Queue: 4 jobs
Job 1
Amino acid sequence: MDVSFLGGPQPQHGVGVVAPFDFALDRELWRWVPDDVSLRLTRTPFVPVGVSLDLARLVSEHETLREAVRALGASEPEVIAYACASGSFVGGIAGERAMCEVMNTAGEVPSLTTSGALLQALEELGAGRIALLTPYTESVTSSLEEYLGEAGVTVTGRAFLGLTRHIWKVPYRAVVDMARQAVVGAADALFISCTNLPTYDAIPQLEAELRMPVLSANQVTMWAALRTLGVRAIGPYQALLMEPEALAGTLPGPQPEALAATLPEAQPETLAGTLPEAQPETRPEEQEGWT
């Protein structure tokens, strides 16, 4: 069929995304992306290891990154984002920078990681004291806190679930409940870690309820990647995505009770067994399991 009369395809910015093999939230990433941007995703090779520091190191090995970026090269992305929080904070700030250098060289385009994007976002908001929420075990959560400490960011309170698998099945309402437990001290913002944890529809409610900016791993990754292209990420009632003047004074947005009605109810069948409660003080032991 001759489609020349249509003028060919519309120009699209391309964002390459390298995600871990168990990443299950492709659709969530797309929700921050405007129509003139296309995501090109690839995944790291499967390894039979549960979510842990060991897995974080495996999915961020330099040769794994090189191969993933080379695979994305055929689609000619203009920027490449490594969409994994633990994989990009496990080596500290030096490790995160080394990952970006490897990807820059392999892809010959600007590259970034979720954890590097987090630091950019905190700087953008002037947030030096944050509450921390993760689905991880204590050891992985502590590694993130150490990474933030290297950057001069203080964690005022934290909550985590101790999960080693099926993180993408955690319902929004559990994320909201965890956030309330994490915010126990004076904080400038809340960060929800893990790109495999659903957050898009929870952010507006939490910002309205907690009266502070709420950042998530997927949000900062897309925000930073799109900003590299000179494109604004989209998302209603999210402080990071607002124009600076809109953040003056109290955070705007709908009231928590109005937003609560929009959150889907947790479905029992979405989780294997009972979801453990977040533990802001008593830390759960690492669980056995596969991602």
Job 2
Amino acid sequence: MDPLGAEYDRAFRTLLTHAAGKNSGGAHLASTVAALPRRAVFVDAGAGTGRSTAALADSFERITAIEPNPHLRDRLARACPQARVLAESIATAQVDERADLVLCSHVLYHVDPGQWLSTVQRLASWTARGGQTVVVLQNPEGDCMRMLRHFSGYRYDLRSLPAPFTAADLHHEWRTSLTTVPGTVETPDLDSALTIARFLLNDAPLPTPPPRLDELADYLDQHHRTPGGRYLLTCPQDYLHLERAA
């Protein structure tokens, strides 16, 4: 799917419609925000359509949203008009004010794993004392990521980050923790399941030629069709918290 196209947008909406547990993720972020000692500045790095940006915006005085994709950026501006939007990547964006919360949600799929540590260190450099950087990805043991791995060979795992990040923390400024929030996707029919599966497969480079639609349908039928004819996939989310000392 073309990330700039209407089909991609429709597929994302289909995923949100059929995702159970998205409210749990929102509640987890809300509790994180409530525990912050200060809530002046929020940076959403890779804000996408602005769904998370808008959900947390009222808790902060100032918001910066980073989003290089122009199609997503238009929706972001409508969803959260009070945000200052930077049309750049995380690697090039200049954040001139330290943030109490830096959020990077479902972005690292699109970053070379060899650059994960430097990317997270850059996010952390924007974080004020007493603040947090929170990085979110799907847990690699969920059904959605197993499907991605089956067709692409790629495995994404946030658990690889805390050890090298801590090792590079020469001044012992940071405390790291990782929380897994349960989630599932359940659809009433194969067409909806295929739409969501195709959307999820955009998170990794696919082989050439890419998998055929009938191969994807066979995989869903074999692994995720329920006795009632519905399709159920687990998609737990990992939240990596980097908390900077006050």
Job 3
Amino acid sequence: MIKKISDYLEAIYNLPLNQSLSREHLLHSSFLAGKENNVEIYYSPHNEYINKDAKVIIVGITPGFQQMKMAYETLRSELANGHSLEEGLKKSKIAGSFAGSMRRNLIHMLEECGLPTALGIKDAASLFSTERNILHTTSVIKYPAFYKGKNYTGSQPMIDKNKLLSSYAYTIFPEELAQLPSKTLVIPLGKAVDRVLTNLVQEGKIKQAFLTGFPHPSGANGHRRKQFEQRKEALIKGIFQWTQERA
């Protein structure tokens, strides 16, 4: 059974305040959620919060260490300042969701696809600020996964070849989607996430519509721009079709 924040609260309260948290702090046995061969999954609090009013769900492969770090630092600060656990989890979600250059790249592509027009909002950037109430962000691997100590990228090992990763992608992830509205649009980032969504649809485990072929916005994806230009027209059509179906 997947562990929850209640299993880690004591360790979270023991994290140092007012300083940058390191890999030694977070990639620690206190937060280890699972291990299989060279794959390790560590708990992170920001994917605990689920926005059940979302109109759009953006799905990554797994949170990276930087997202994990921001989420923990935010939650630790919120709790120390006397805020509720629920509020702390919400704030850590906002802080950790596709942070840094990845968010900038993602916003640019969503803008070009016409998503803001479909949603009736000012721009794609507002999804991460004033319109955050209509966005839910998550990952097929709910918590940060690492392969040989480095951020897991979805390719080595393949999700389907690792029982630990598969349990998150094909059991835990669809359970999360089941809590969200059926008319929500799912945007999977990258081929590995796309493949998981396709398999889940074939298995009848998800009810939402999803775009296919959306490039991963990571700066490490050097082919991102080319991939996007090749898929842009189809993505625009996919968003338009979703708009018509939910009308």
Job 4
Amino acid sequence: MSDTIIKRKSLADEVADRIKKLICSGDYMIGDKLPTEPELMQKFGVGRSSIREAVKILTQKGMLRVQQGTGTFVASLSGSNGMLSNCLEKARYEEVNEVRFLLEEKIVEKAALNRTDADIERIRESLLKRKHFAESGDVAGCIQADIDFHTAIAEAAQNSILLELYQTVANHMKKALAELHKNTQAFIDSQAIHEALLQAIIDKKEKRAINLAENISKHK
């Protein structure tokens, strides 16, 4: 893929299209971190605002995931605008949460078996952020950290299809959680069980991880 600088103005949509092509062509794979904003600015010859808008476009489509303080990562090869996404858009919260748990049941089992030390660090980092935002009363930050925590577990499962399915569901869960939670008390109350899930994954106790995931789904 050529890195030819974009000549005409725009450009957020065209930059988004360029990044999408890089993802679809395999230059960036699921879980890969994108270059920094300055690097992307130089690569495409556009300003910071165009890069940020392009990332926003692809994030809304489910192809990218922005993790605060860490960077922007490839979340999907095709985005979340397909049949599953359309069904989720029309579904009740309880239905989406049920699908999420069915995915997480297998995800946490495989994460407990396949996780690496790097996976554990990513999961732990998101969990610490979840606690920080919960205790500071930041609902939006807490929801994002919660999503990042569970997504990091999905990455640890080492199954790209499960990861993409989970990210599509999580994209809709995020909207539902924002409507459901007006404060962070529920996240404070469930912090301990999330910490227990992390420990079960560390200890490679897949059955305990599954039981904890089921209990977590009841707290959402």
